[in-house]
Design brief:
The chain is mostly helical. The chain has 4 helices and no strands. About 10% of the residues are buried.
């Protein structure tokens, strides 16, 4: 497999560009610094990936909403 198919976000964080874009959009909606929130969520995201839990857009939004409740 060549490295052409791997993006830097996935290599460094285990998160795909599309998922990161979803996170950034929700951050903008709630006026939260996306860089801070990405770091805050990556641990939870990584744990779910390791457990092979569903991580579709709906699951990502749920994780975001949970994180937002903790900082409000």
């Amino acid at each position: 497999m060549s490295n052409k198919g791997l993006d830097s976000l996935f290599i460094h964080y285990g998160i795909r560009k599309d998922d990161m874009a979803t996170i950034e959009q929700i951050c903008e909606k709630h006026e939260i610094d996306p860089d801070w929130l990405k770091e805050y969520l990556l641990k939870s995201y990584h744990e779910k990936k390791i457990k092979n839990e569903d991580l579709d857009e709906k699951a990502l939004k749920k994780m975001m909403e949970k994180a937002l409740q903790k900082i409000k």
